[in-house]
Amino acid sequence: MLDIIREYGTLFLIGTYPNGPLGGVAATLLLSIIGIGFAFPLGVVLALAQLSPIKVIRYPATAIRYLLRSIPLVMLIFGTYFIAPLILGRPIAGFTTMAVTLVVFQSAYLAEIVRAGIESLPKGQQEAAAALGMSYGVRMRKVILPQALTNMLPSMVGQFVTTIKDTSLGYVIGVHELTYAANQVNSSLLTKPFEVFVLLSLIYFVICFSLTQFARVLENRLARRHVRQSPSNQAAPTAAATGH
Hints:
- The structure is a single chain.
- Helices cover 80% and strands 0% of the residues.
- It is built from eleven helices and no strands.
């Protein structure tokens, strides 16, 4: 295995870059960052739409959530890969296809995290903000979302870990991510598939385990902070939050 790392370590890390497309660990992390980064604002909008008192907004948002969560990711990848070029009238790169698919797919799951974070807050927060004359949008922007997003950070890191693992499905459409790099190495060696894929598993384990531990530390810190806070601080919005 050490011989594989010495000879193909660069391929595992960055693919054939700069002589070819970026690949390996770098492409996997880049896809994950794009997926979560762009899915997050969509998830917030979708979550707020699901919580909207207006049925015309709430029902379609709920339907979109159920639809996206019921479709396997690999089917969504194939659908985007084959249907999008027909609609746009030109081919789309595999990396772009995978990035767009991850954004759409992860937005549904992030919307659930955001919705749960908002609903976990005491109802007195919204009632107190409404009593101060705040509109729905102002309440969400200045009082509810800042608190909910802080509580949701560990779950969002966990979703980032899931996204990293989901990028491995990009291999089916030729995206040069980590699994694709491992298959390139396996095709070159031919006689060491066990060592190659054990190494692949170890790389995924190191990345995901590190992020999982970070999420656990973050969760513990948030829990200690909540313990230190007095109930009176949670009963109503602060003067800073209300803008007065």
